[in-house]
């Protein structure tokens, strides 16, 4: 990569963050629209959760196949490809609604998000000096979760206000993709030399000294992703079918609360040591799961909103601390690979529970399935929190394996 001037870096940071945000924004645009798709195409809860989960399959596939691609050919080309895939997903969503078209759009969206999750994080960290690495991690995660939050909120508001609720959000997203591509092309550093891209399908590697901290970090942050994934996949159906609230803006706002809280959690975690933030986040996830169980059991809106906010804040604490103890501990040459490995673990934990809830919902109903899931996640988060506390007391660090 060419060494950019300070003035160019000042422009490259927002250009990179915008591309990251816009790509992730596209992944949550369908969230408040699932009730519309369900009504038009007669989808079951399982169909909706599968639609959500195939996105995660696309993310993990991209991370596993192309996790080192930006280390090989540079950050900029991979980010451009990620935004192009986000635009292609929007075009697929603009086709007449059908299950094959929606599945294809979600997979393409996942591929773009997978490329951007690892590469965007590494690219932002590359642009900051070592002494400002904590700020770089905050910018990266806010770009990620901020995009997820804005996607669901904007789509919900447009679905209620626009005459074509299944088209307008994607047209707006296409325009934002064009702006993001222009910013990447003009302001981000070009690779110093082009190298042949190498596909490495044999998995991603974690440095031996980092493996213990890596497993704990993925399980902690992944617990938050697991709850968020199910909330994202079924909240619109829960509001429409259980609470008889058909507002798409409200459906978008529930998920917005979770992702906005996650962004706020990053900011708070930046002021805490990871050994404090990670167990605190796990404790919050237990509280969020209990509040979500209350919402499901009582079919009540207020605890659902509270659960989303607590979930986001706690997940943000876990996610920031997890990045600091994994991606933040490796040299730039391996940062893309470790970042991609980290997000592959997170998205795997996001997809599997969502499908499980969909399967259970078909057998025992949406609310009982959600209650079973919240109990499992609460137990996982509590276990990880205790293990993290014991490990930090044992070695005084969250980094040592």
Instruction: Look at the structure and give the CATH class.
Output: Mainly Alpha
Structural class: mainly alpha
How much of the residues is beta strand, in percent?
under 5%
Number of helices: 14
The CATH topology is Growth Hormone, Chain: A
Q: What's the main sheet like?
A: none
Give the number of domains: 1
Rounded to an integer, what's the Rg over CA atoms? 20 Å
Mean pLDDT: 86
Write the CATH homologous superfamily. MFS general substrate transporter like domains
What is the chain-wise order of helices and strands?
HHHHHHHHHHHHHH
> Which percent range fits the helix content?
over 70%
At CATH's second level, what is the architecture? Up-down Bundle
Distance between the termini: 32 Å
Dominant shape: globular
Beta strands, count: 0
Unreliable stretches, pLDDT < 50, 5 or more residues?
Answer: 396-401
List the helices and strands and how they pair.
Elements: H1 6-28, H2 34-41, H3 45-66, H4 69-73, H5 75-93, H6 99-127, H7 133-161, H8 168-187, H9 211-242, H10 248-269, H11 274-298, H12 301-324, H13 332-364, H14 366-395
Overview of this protein structure:
It is globular and about 55 Å long. The two termini are 32 Å apart. The chain has 401 residues and is mainly α. The protein has one domain: Up-down Bundle (Growth Hormone, Chain: A), CATH 1.20.1250. The relative contact order is 0.16. The protein has 14 helices and no strands. The longest helix is centred in the C-terminal third of the chain and has 33 residues.
